[in-house]
Design goal:
CATH architecture of the largest domain: Alpha-Beta Barrel
Number of domains: 2
Shape: globular
Strand order of the largest sheet: 1-9-8-6-5-4-3-2
CATH superfamily of the largest domain: Aldolase class I
Structural class: alpha/beta
Distance between the termini: 5 Å
Radius of gyration: 20 Å
CATH topology of the largest domain: TIM Barrel
Number of strands: 12
Order of helices and strands: HEHEHEHHEHEHEEHEHEHHEEHHEH
Largest sheet: 8 strands, parallel
Helix content: 40-55%
Number of helices: 14
Amino acid sequence: MWNQTKITELFGIKYPILLGPMGGGFSTPQLLAAVSNAGGLGSLGAYTLSPEQLLETANVIKTLTDKPYNINLWVSDVDNRLANFPADSHEKVKALFKPFFDELSIPFPDLDANIPSKFLKQVEALFEIRPAVFSFIFGIPPVEILNEARRLGIKTVGAATTLDEALALEEAKVDAIVAAGFEAGGHRPSFLRPAHDSLTGTFTLIQQLKAKIKTPVIAAGGIADGKGIAAALTLGADAVQLGTAFLITDESSATSLHKATLLSDQAKYTVLSKSLTGRMGRLIRNRISDEIKYESEVLPFPLQTHLIRPLREAAIAQGKTDMINFWSGQNGVRLKHTKAAELMQALITETGQILKS
């Protein structure tokens, strides 16, 4: 049976279909529950949540599903260079972005570079919650954390954008590895080399990993329908992870404008940019990504996010859609299902028809 894989056995789910753990509030308890209740693995992108918010969200999830689910955190949630970012570089970035603020008639924000990491405190909350799966990006947690997850019976999943990263994750003895292809929407979770040096496509990455590692592989990036799922499984993936296809559903907390943009012709034009957050991510091209080239120095993550936030809010209020960041994968051209349960059923049915089992 196509839906019986190492991942379905490992996670205790019916279908090898995972919800991408979209951070920034996009993945909601309702979306997570819809995917888990349909037999997949729902996910919560929790890197922006405080430990208290994480515990509160988990309480909501418990009221919506009793099925396995995943909580995702960022191992590196603050750039190391933030601590000693030069004042002259800060002024150059200010000069680069100030015209956008002037156009919207809003003041340039005063930014506080004192941004502590939340990761370790978030992990404490996660261990209290005890989800079935703990996934993480931008690195590998300390061995003590991985050992405690095993002791608590929590499966661990790391993300790799290259074969070298997958080998490092296997060395750390994670339970599964996401093959994060460069087609995926959102941030590129590279951690051994810069993201711009780690741009392997999903289907190539699946084959590289299956040739060199024994850890189960989850394919992510550019998969939006049953054809993509069937292709990934045929190449050896043990499961697939979809993000953008679920972003347009009613259960997602993406704005109506974001969803409408994903369903428009604009979804054909995605780019990799670091101008919106300080780290490379894939989004639908806009004026900021066009005018602030990738080579331009921007503020470290997440300070760049703090810089862009008031700009984004003003752009939304003033209808300046060409300044708004809309995350999207490359394969958003045939999205149509706006109910998560309906999308899951369509994915299951189409994959089964293609694989005939």
